[in-house]
Amino acid sequence: VNNPRVVLHAMCLLLGFDDEISCAFVQTPQKFYGALKDDPFGNQLEVSLMKVGRGIAGLQGIFYCGTGCFHRRKVIYGMRTGREGTTGYSSNKELHSKFGSSNNFKESARDVIYGNLSTEPIVDISSCVDVAKEVAACNYEIGTCWGQEVGWVYGSLTEDVLTGQRIHAAGWRSTLMEIEPPAFMGCAPNGGPACLTQLKRWASGFLEILISRNNPILTTTFKSLQFRQCLAYLHSYVWPVRAPFELCYALLGPYCLLSNQSFLPKTSEDGFYIALALFIAYNTYMFMEFIECGQSARACWNNHRMQRITSASAWLLAFLTVILKTLGFSETVFEVTRKDKSTSDGDSNTDEPEPGRFTFDESTVFIPVTALAMLSVIAIAVGAWRVVLVTTEGLPGGPGISEFISCGWLVLCFMPLLRGLVGSGRYGIPWSIKMKACLLVAIFLLFCKRN
């Protein structure tokens, strides 16, 4: 907790609306102690909050992000908006199916739902502790609605976002609370493994929701999730779906340089200037967004670079993991992100001599992106050699400048991986990852040679 008045501010929002439906929960944005300058790992999400988060807050409400959130108990207990939300809770059988066998807990839940809150102080604290232990037991929820209609929703690694979607689908709204000083402060993951592990977990959870019965399109059709809020959820859930398509597009440049072909217009064609204009317009727009949000040009580049790295690593692995799980070949595993410590004055306590530099381990998440980085360098070298042959020997055809720009852009984006190829210690890519990446590159080179 960074702001001692955060509970007061949250209560003002929860109790300040004329209709409690307007505020099922209050979500505060994530802020970080010891944030590295220029966001080298692209995980501080400043621009995403200002440009996307605030926009979503103006729809049916901000997503539930897990950390720094205040909930109405009746909402967590599965109450829907309107009169239908209070029906079916009167009989003991219905209460048992919802909340389990604890009489104390059932009475407490019923009082919360109907607003019959007692102001009498708790006399027997020990009995309350015993009830809490009973309800917290692993087998208590068997045969109840826990994990579906009550409590946090099961079925996704991102159970917080899924729970927030369930609340919105029940007709509730949520509220974004931004105060100064920030309500809560945490630590953003530093280094390659921690960042990519977190992003892989998020992407896996999003894709699990997307292909399940909790798909926001279904909840919009059959429940009370608003259409624009559905689009907002889909905007995040399609993160991992982009990965295989972006990978194929990233491979087009190296493929053309290696096989002496072209997929983009030549400089002598009018279509070249259309592609160039789109490239410049997209990157200029992104740059202006960061400047408008008070970020530096370096932060803009770091975030763009991390998007390319994440797409070819964390998102791609998340996509493959969930597809294999769906086909019954594996199970998704919750991977814990290592938490870095920070001091209260905002100085990072990390032991890294270069805290903004990428670190590596033997995680499989580094294999595809390392292979793509190596392949881009090889493709540029082969393409340059072909240009020399064309110039000196007058050979016809071949790739144009567009393919070189495409591969060159990948090399710039993957520069942390290329530094890791020649680095040592934690800053070097392990040999096991290098060998597996080389095998993938060799397979792709063989494919190019045969085509």
TrEMBL record:
Subcellular location: Endomembrane system
Domain of life: Eukaryota
The entry's keywords: Cell wall biogenesis/degradation, Glycosyltransferase, Membrane, Signal, Transferase, Transmembrane, Transmembrane helix
Short name of any one Pfam family annotated for the protein: Cellulose_synt
Broad class of where this protein is predominantly found: membrane
Position of the signal peptide: 1-23
Name this protein carries in UniProt: Os10g0341700 protein
